[in-house]
């Protein structure tokens, strides 16, 4: 089968199809998110987000009782962050806007002047340094005032988000040309409601998660249609959605169908309604959940159906596909009576599937990140097979460690291996990948893991009130790739993390 073809290809093969250079115009960037870096949680007019509430209400659920109250203090250190990005030669910097910082009530009845000023300063300074701002409109920090009304399980949330997006487009659309509406709905829907270890902290597996799924699709679509109708002709920007996707491999040779079902549940649920020709939920997932719901005695499917009008609204709401990729899993059919863990890390109860890993995959320091570089290539090729020749922007890819090492050899290797596979996807598989962004520019608040886990190209000293940043070897390596626009780098990285 196409996804099982050998992916360990010699560099000489790359040479045959144009060497190890990235295509002209290919862009490299780095990503962050408001709650994870900004701090200033109660500064000026900003209201509470669901993550402010979560970390203060359930401190025991965060490693070392950490909060994002100060984080990297990028609210005050944004100039330093831009300097780091500029020194590396980044083509773009992806950051998110805090909904409760810009709209304290959650609604457009009042726009915070301080919030406006902060993001205007950030955007203007990026452009002055030749760095493109890529803006995520929502990255997990829903205003608590809206959560009090049901949050992502209230059908009105699609309109709340669309109205917020209109404000963002009107304020910043003259300078921002690449937009992500929602970051990782699989996290704030599936993980939040199936497992409950993230804000808002409510569990409703197989019900709340699916309601959130649908509302997220409608929210994205309404925001896209607003941009298309009111701003596209004026600003000519591009807009899409980003989701985290695990690449699923069959656990055994007899598990190919299980692996494909898992792919459709993880990737298809958030991409099929938008990118497929017919729209709507992936048919196989829709059938399975309807059948299971009926067996449970329910008069309706737990997966809310799209109306014909909603299918039309959502279908085609993209200018590119945003992908966050970190890791892979295997999928197999559960044995009769076998306990199935929570989706997406351990199982898919509605599909009767067990999720696992291959023994050969090395685990990073974080519990969920197993390293399988070939997975990113397979996932990119799957998108092309499913949705055709679409533009893909890799919006996140990163490696986690517990240590503060500046000479982060494992992270350098992770990036080398994954960039190699991205290049093979472009040159061998013909996938139209146009950009790549690492997670992340600086160490930050990593949700339930607090500050115990590091993803940054730059180390942040969280014991220092100034939150001093120090470049790691991975920052130097990535800067070399950007400068050479190639994986053939002339200047090597020394043990001290400097070039020679």
TrEMBL record:
<dbReference type="Pfam" id="PF00232">
    <property type="entry name" value="Glyco_hydro_1"/>
</dbReference>
<keyword id="KW-0732">Signal</keyword>
<protein>
    <recommendedName>
        <fullName>beta-glucosidase</fullName>
        <ecNumber>3.2.1.21</ecNumber>
    </recommendedName>
</protein>
<feature type="active site" description="Nucleophile">
    <location>
        <position position="396"/>
    </location>
</feature>
<dbReference type="GO" id="GO:0008422">
    <property type="term" value="F:beta-glucosidase activity"/>
</dbReference>
<dbReference type="GO" id="GO:0005975">
    <property type="term" value="P:carbohydrate metabolic process"/>
</dbReference>
<dbReference type="InterPro" id="IPR001360">
    <property type="entry name" value="Glyco_hydro_1"/>
</dbReference>
<keyword id="KW-0325">Glycoprotein</keyword>
<keyword id="KW-0378">Hydrolase</keyword>
<dbReference type="InterPro" id="IPR033132">
    <property type="entry name" value="GH_1_N_CS"/>
</dbReference>
<dbReference type="InterPro" id="IPR018120">
    <property type="entry name" value="Glyco_hydro_1_AS"/>
</dbReference>
<comment type="subunit">
    <text>Homodimer.</text>
</comment>
<keyword id="KW-0326">Glycosidase</keyword>
<feature type="signal peptide">
    <location>
        <begin position="1"/>
        <end position="19"/>
    </location>
</feature>
<dbReference type="InterPro" id="IPR017853">
    <property type="entry name" value="GH"/>
</dbReference>
<comment type="similarity">
    <text>Belongs to the glycosyl hydrolase 1 family.</text>
</comment>
């Amino acid at each position: 089968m196409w996804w099982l073809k050998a992916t360990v290809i010699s560099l000489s093969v790359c040479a045959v199809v144009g060497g190890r250079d990235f295509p002209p115009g290919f862009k490299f960037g780095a990503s962050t998110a408001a709650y994870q870096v900004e701090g200033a949680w109660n500064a000026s007019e900003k209201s509470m987000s669901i993550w402010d509430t979560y970390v203060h209400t359930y401190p025991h659920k965060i490693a070392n009782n950490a909060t994002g109250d100060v984080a990297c203090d990028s609210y005050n250190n944004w100039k330093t962050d831009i300097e780091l990005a500029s020194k590396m030669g980044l083509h773009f910097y992806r950051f998110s806007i805090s909904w409760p910082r810009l709209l304290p009530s959650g609604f457009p009845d009042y726009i915070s002047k301080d919030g406006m000023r902060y993001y205007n300063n950030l955007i203007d300074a990026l452009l002055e340094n030749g760095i493109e701002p890529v803006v995520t409109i929502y990255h997990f920090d829903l205003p608590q005032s809206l959560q009090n009304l049901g949050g992502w399980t209230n059908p009105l949330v699609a309109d709340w988000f669309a109205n917020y997006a209109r404000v963002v487009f009107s304020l910043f659309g003259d300078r921002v040309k690449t937009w992500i509406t929602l970051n990782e709905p699989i996290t704030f829907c599936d993980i939040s409601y199936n497992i409950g270890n993230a804000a808002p902290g409510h569990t409703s597996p197989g019900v709340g998660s699916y309601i959130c799924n649908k509302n997220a699709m409608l929210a994205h679509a309404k925001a896209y249609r607003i941009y298309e109708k009111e701003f596209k002709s004026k600003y000519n920007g591009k807009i899409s959605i980003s989701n985290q996707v695990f690449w699923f491999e069959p656990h055994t040779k007899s598990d190919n169908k299980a692996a494909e079902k898992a792919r459709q549940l993880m990737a298809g649920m958030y991409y099929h309604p938008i990118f497929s020709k017919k729209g709507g939920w992936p048919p196989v997932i829709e059938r399975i959940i309807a059948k299971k719901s009926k067996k449970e005695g329910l008069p309706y499917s737990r997966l809310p159906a799209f109306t014909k009008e909603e299918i039309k609204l959502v279908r085609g709401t993209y200018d590119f596909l945003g992908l966050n990729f970190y890791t892979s899993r295997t999928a197999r059919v559960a044995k009769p009576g076998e306990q199935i863990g929570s989706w997406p890390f351990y199982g898919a109860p509605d599909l009767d599937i067990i999720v696992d890993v291959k023994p050969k995959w090395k685990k990073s320091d974080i519990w969920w990140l197993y390293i399988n570089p070939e997975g990113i290539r397979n996932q990119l090729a799957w998108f092309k097979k499913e949705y055709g020749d679409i533009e893909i922007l890799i919006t996140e890819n990163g490696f986690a460690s517990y240590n503060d090492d500046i000479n982060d050899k494992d992270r350098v290797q992770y990036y080398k291996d994954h960039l190699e596979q991205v290049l093979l996807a472009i040159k061998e598989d013909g996938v139209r990948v146009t950009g790549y962004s690492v997670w992340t520019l600086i160490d930050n608040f990593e949700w339930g893991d607090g500050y115990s886990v590091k993803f940054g190209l730059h180390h942040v000293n969280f014991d220092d009130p100034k939150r001093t940043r120090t470049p790691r070897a991975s920052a130097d390596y990535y800067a070399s790739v950007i400068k050479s626009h190639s994986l053939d780098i002339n200047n090597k990285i020394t043990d001290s993390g400097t070039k020679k």
